[in-house]
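To whoever is on call:

I kicked off a structure prediction for a single chain this morning and the downstream step that reads the tokens threw a length-mismatch warning. I double-checked the sequence; it's 75 residues and nothing unusual in it as far as I can see. Pasting both halves so you can look.
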Amino acid sequence: MQDTKYTDIEYERYKDFDFSGAKPIQNPKILEARARKQAHDLSKFFDYDVIEAIKKHDNEHDRQRANTILRALFT
């Protein structure tokens, strides 16, 4: 049996890069895209156990049920 070693491809690709002179991104389009993503990120809103339950019930019927319950809860 061949010994398979896990290698992190991203690490291997960038391990020799020098990021010591890196500056924060100033491009307004990238900053705007980051802000939009953070505004739509619900992972911080829900507890971990709720997120795991949602992942386990990832089908059309359960999605509709969850949406109906949330709509009723917040009306």
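Update from on-call: the warning came from a stale cache, not from the record. Cleared it. Sanity check on the structure: Residues 8 and 56 are 28 Å apart (CA to CA).
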